[in-house]
Amino acid sequence: MRISLNWLKKYISFEHSAEEIAALLTASGLEVEGIERAEKVPGGLEGMVIGEVLSCEKHPNADKLSITTVDIGSQVSPIVCGAPNVAAGQKVVIATVGSTLYPAGGEPFKIKKAKIRGEVSEGMICAEDEIGLGSSHAGIMVLDTHLPNGTPAAQYFQLESEEVLEIGLTPNRADAASHMGVARELKALLNRPLQLPSVDAFKVENTDHRIEVEVQNLEACPRYSGLTISDVEVKESPEWLRNRLLSIGLQPINNIVDVTNFVLHELGQPLHAFDTAAIKGDKVVIRTLPQGAAFTTLDEKERKLQAEDLMICNAEEGMCIAGVFGGHKSGVKESTKAIFLESAYFSPDWIRRTAQHHSLKTDASFRYERGADPNITVYALKRAALLIKKVAGGYISSEITDIYPQKVEDFRIETTYSYINQLIGKDIPAAETDRILESLDIKLTDKTAEGFTALVPPYRVDVQRPADLVEEVLRVYGYDNIETSETLSSSYLAAFPALDENLQQRRISELLAANGFLETITNSLTKPEYAQEVDFIDKSRTVEILNKLSEDLGVMRQSLLFGGLEVIAHNINRRQRDLKLFEFGKTYQTNGDGFEEKKFLGIWLSGNAGAEHYLQASRPVAFQDIRLAVEKIFGLFGIREYDTQVIHEKGFAYGTEIMYNGRSKRRRGQSKEEPLARLGKVAPALATLAGVKQEVFWAEVSWAALLEAYKEHSVTYQPISKFPEVRRDLSLVIDKKVQFEDISKITNRQENSLIKRVGVFDVYEGDKLEEGKKAYALSFILQDEEKTLTDKVIDKVMQRLIKTFEDQLGAVIRK
Question: Where does 2-39+161-190 sit in CATH, by number?
Fold first, then answer.
């Protein structure tokens, strides 16, 4: 939104610079994104002054040149001039040395001290085309003025520089979508009076051209005002009106339309002028038209209307899409002799819906769909009528029609001073709070020492709650005037929100989807025989369906495993062999006389880990892939502390059970805690039972245990160490039954202060080792938070670790 400062000064007086006004508005919530300086004449005649020719003589070395002396106020300058009409005693425009000329139709050039045919010249006496004021080059401009010599030429020609603010208006501040709206804001910020344009001269001259108005949809059009103006002359607007519109980037059209645009940007109230010759039956009807009705808008495009599009119609047909766009037939033309001027308040919902459907974004719809002022329609109508009479002649030929059956009431908000001060964090005197609110046109009633009731005008659609009043006080009082407490604490604390399970589920879904997983949703009913093949399902707690549709859907599932296997089989049968799937679902069991539901996250991997690529060979998925997926979920939830142990269950070829070792078990005093997750390779026989003949890796994460761990975990921040990490590698031969987890635990117990990470980068099992043995190649990352590690310290750590591995694991160190 563009706001002209010169235009703004018509409504409020201020001496502040554009930068100062921009800072004030930005601090109050109307962010000024830029300041543009527009000049009527290129360069603004900077460096050009009024001078007086004291003498004029022929140039001794050129017949068409003259040597003059010119008084420019600060000095008398010799100037060589080629104009035939130059003479002593003239008042002229002088371009002084150092100034830049912007001639009409030419390139700019700078005035320098020069010698012309041997004579010194310190400036230039200008013609109107040489300074961009016109096209004439018949001679120099001779001025009729008594202004003293040295007066800036811009002052003589009354060239005021135009400074325009570009305001990034937020959707909630429809009240500031005009020059008057911004002036209202400055009224509160500067504590200065507002100067409203007077409409006292408005007078109905006769009533011989009355247009009947009927509003059939008061929900969409709560208020409609209008009048007729006859005997108007449609022509080009006067210069002052054209300049106002051009300054904010609007192209003038004609004097009638320009006035409606002027008032819209002055007051924020959209207006529309109809040619009364197009109002059939001398009647305006505000209603909707049938679905699919054709209507041609001002841009000569035919549009198909919705049944919910509010229309301004005459007695027979539509003339205008209400609050959005005018019609081609009813608009003001050069032949127009009388107009019907509309000023209405339309429901924001109706206008927004129509504008979006037709992809029409106009200055009028911009304001209506955010919430215009229902109480300004008649004032804006009078203001526009007086301006139209001024620029187009004519006379007001009807009384004002104002249909407003149900007045839009002020918003009533009850609040207390203590509430305002508590939210702001500072005790603002009650008198100052009152002053600020009243300067924003908010009336205060039912006042007591404790509080008041605020009556907020309807155009402030963003102020409807006590907290909104606090914002109004704070933004005018100034955020910068609220001191920060020494302890950086607040006496006001919001309640901590409860854990949103849906949000956490979405976080996990997004993580898995970003890693190539697809989500599935499977049936909660499954085959009874699945439970016979695994020992992690309690068959005695199976929920059997009494009215089963088939034996294949005879019981409620106790695990997500089988539904995922069936999905994998279905995809493999359709030549989709590389699968990464996940599902959030519930399991069901009997519990005494009742039933028990539990929620789990199931994850399945099968086929190859990635697509074939010439840079990287394809490989089958492995246990490490399913574990990595589970660990990424733990990492997302900040869960770092957990124990793992090998599980030996029918249904798993091999697998791991993960137990959370945080505070929950100790707090609840349970003898057996529910696993956080179980994962591993599905037994081939079980996979075959579901129709899958390739390897499948599966993980099942307990939703309840995961959320419990998430609630309990804490985050500790520490600065990144300034000292470098050191890596040492170690190869050792151990029994096959020894797991990497055992090595990791021993390392953490032995050297947790210096060894930050331990990893395995190679595993060997083959004929070069004796039966029952395997070789691990391990990497150890060491770092001291307080100093740089020396080789001597590192060697001691590694020797202690080697001895521990030899004593506790029977490891043989490979040299």
Answer: 3.30.56.10
51 with 78: CB under 8 angstroms?
A: no
- Specify the higher pLDDT residue, 545 or 374: 374
State whether residue 706 is helix, strand or coil.
helix
pLDDT digits (tens, 9 = 90+) for 752-796: 788 888 988 898 888 888 888 999 999 999 999 889 999 999 999
Go through 623-641 and write b for each residue having 16 or more CB atoms within 10 A of its CB, e for each that does not: bebbbebbeebbeebebee
Q: Do domains 2-39+161-190 and 411-480 have the same CATH topology?
A: yes
Q: Domain 42-156 adopts which CATH fold?
A: OB fold (Dihydrolipoamide Acetyltransferase, E2P) (2.40.50)
Q: Which CATH architecture has domain 212-403?
A: 3-Layer(bba) Sandwich (3.50)
Q: Which fold has domain 501-712?
A: BirA Bifunctional Protein; domain 2 (3.30.930)
β pairing state of 48-58 and 525-526: unpaired
What are the pLDDT digits (tens) for 350-384? 999 999 999 999 999 999 999 999 999 999 999 99
CB of 394 closer than 8 Å to CB of 258: no
Q: Strand ranges (DSSP E) for 504-635?
A: 518-519, 525-526, 555-556, 579-591, 594-606
Residue 665: pLDDT band (50, 70, 90) is: very low
Q: Which of these, 401, 414, 10, lies nearest to 180 by C-alpha position?
A: 10
DSSP classification of residue 254: -
Helix (H, G, I), strand (E, B) or coil at 740: helix
Q: Which residues fall within 8 angstroms of residue 211, CB to CB, at 6 or more apart? A: 226, 228, 276, 279, 282, 283, 284, 340, 398, 401
726-814: CATH topology is: Alpha-Beta Plaits (3.30.70)
Domain boundaries, the chain: 2-39+161-190, 42-156, 212-403, 411-480, 501-712, 726-814
Tens-digit pLDDT profile for residues 521-530: 999 999 888 8
Residues 522, 696: Cα–Cα separation, whole Å: 17
